[in-house]
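Notebook entry, structure prediction.
Reason for the run: the old model in the group folder had no record of what sequence produced it. Starting over properly, with the input documented here first.
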Amino acid sequence: MESTVLRKLLLTASALGCAMTVSAQTPVDPPEWAEDAVTAPPRFSTSQLIPIEMPPYVTLKVGVDPETVTVGSDGVVRYVVVMRNNMGSESAAFEGILCTNGEVKTYARMGTSGKWSVVSQPQWQAMTDNLGSRHAFAISKQGACDGRATGKRESILQALKTRQSGNL
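New structure, fully documented this time:
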């Protein structure tokens, strides 16, 4: 009888010890996300742009310079996008897409002067807002993002090239 009681006490103590060990191993909160430092806009070329398919109501031709596409350690896909209107006038933007949040940030813009104008306080904005970010949404859907995940640079470029819709 004593051995049965002793055995039950030992099993109970063992179970309590395991439970205490598990509760002592509380998960650690992941570190808060921080954006990588962004340098000056990269040099780009219009000779090898990857065309981005835009909705029919958008008259601009849009393309991404593949040499400018990067994926930061922060998970942001950065690139230079070139936009050309029907008259042949070009503008460009240096942007980043944060796939996990569905957001875009414009770091710098270039107009017909050919000189970058750095955005003084760039802000993350939802790509689905009715702003001038339709091209960013298209870029994300056509290869920059895999749902809410960011792929590797090579897979992003492959996906964008696979969906090419023609010359820019």
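Summary: The first strand starts at residue 50 and ends at 52.
The old model has been moved to the deprecated folder.
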